From TrEMBL:
It catalyses: ATP + protein L-histidine = ADP + protein N-phospho-L-histidine. Residues 17-90 form the Signal transduction histidine kinase subgroup 2 dimerisation and phosphoacceptor domain. This is histidine kinase. It comes from Bradyrhizobium commune. The lineage of its organism: Bacteria, Pseudomonadati, Pseudomonadota, Alphaproteobacteria, Hyphomicrobiales. Keywords: ATP-binding, Kinase, Nucleotide-binding, Phosphoprotein, Transferase. The keyword Phosphoprotein applies. Its EC number is 2.7.13.3. Pfam families: HisKA_2.
Length: 259
């Protein structure tokens, strides 16, 4: 699509153009299949084509959510991930009978960094759906987004029975490269009832100021409960290299493996 030496602006233009063309292609496919569903005779055939149309709509929704954002406005990561999750449910998770749940808090991020977070979350959910092996149990995947001081943690958990995942080298490279672009890391946790993958990365100065302003507004609002002390004190931590925040995120029974 572009050479490694292409400037970021040119790469952004090419990605948006690619997104536009894929969008048009999916829209054309939806129109063609919808027209065929009207013309075809037979209840089963109509139902099958209508199902394909719904699947294509889900893919279009997911593709829009994964598009590179324009502008430099801060984006609420929680809202972005939930929108992405809606596309994943509609496009394939519902058809696999896998439930996707969220536990998120509002965290303003710069648009490009929020987009990278979404790409990682999408890859982790896709990997869990492919490799977790849910057997006879009801499949469940959960995305948890939280902030501990100036560090963001995004955890993707699943209740699959297969702890060791046959993840390709390409998948590992993509998630690790995206995490490094955020200044963060990815780690695995294995428990008796679920497997988790944790993405941890620090806020930029601009993001830290925005989160601090949001926390201050909440503290001043009489209708909202007070924030926990860790959120008040740790947005400007005295020691960035203190205790590992990932250790606080998962239960002591989990074994952590760096990826």
């Amino acid at each position: 699509m572009s050479s490694p030496d292409s400037p970021p602006v040119e790469q952004g233009v090419l990605l948006r153009e690619l997104h536009h063309r894929v969008n048009n292609g999916v829209a054309a496919a939806i129109n063609l299949v919808s027209a065929a569903a009207v013309r075809v005779e037979g209840t089963e055939a109509k139902a099958a084509l209508s199902d394909v149309v719904e699947l294509l709509h889900g893919q279009a929704e997911l593709h829009r959510a994964l598009a590179m954002p324009e502008g430099k406005t801060l984006i609420d990561a929680a809202t972005y991930l939930r929108k992405l999750g809606s596309g994943m449910r509609r496009s394939w998770l519902d058809r696999m009978n896998i439930r996707l749940a969220f536990a998120t808090e509002s965290i303003p991020l710069q648009s490009q960094r929020c987009w990278r977070l979404g790409l990682i979350a999408h890859e982790l959910v896709t990997s869990a759906a492919k490799h977790a092996c849910f057997d006879t149990r009801a499949g469940a995947i959960r995305i948890k987004l939280s902030r501990i001081g100036a560090v963001v943690n995004c955890v993707v958990l699943d209740n699959g029975s297969r702890a060791a995942r046959d993840v390709s080298a390409r998948e590992l490279r993509i998630r690790n490269d995206l995490a490094k672009a955020l200044g963060g890391r990815v780690e695995h946790g294995f428990g008796a009832e679920f497997t988790s993958v944790v993405l941890s990365f620090p806020l930029t100065e601009r993001e830290r100021q925005a989160n601090w302003a949001m926390a201050t507004r909440r503290l001043r609002s009489p209708r909202r409960p007070k924030l926990p002390a860790m959120h008040q004190a740790e947005l400007h931590p005295r020691h960035q290299g203190g205790a590992d925040v990932l250790g606080e995120l998962l239960s002591p029974s989990h074994r952590m493996d760096a990826q």
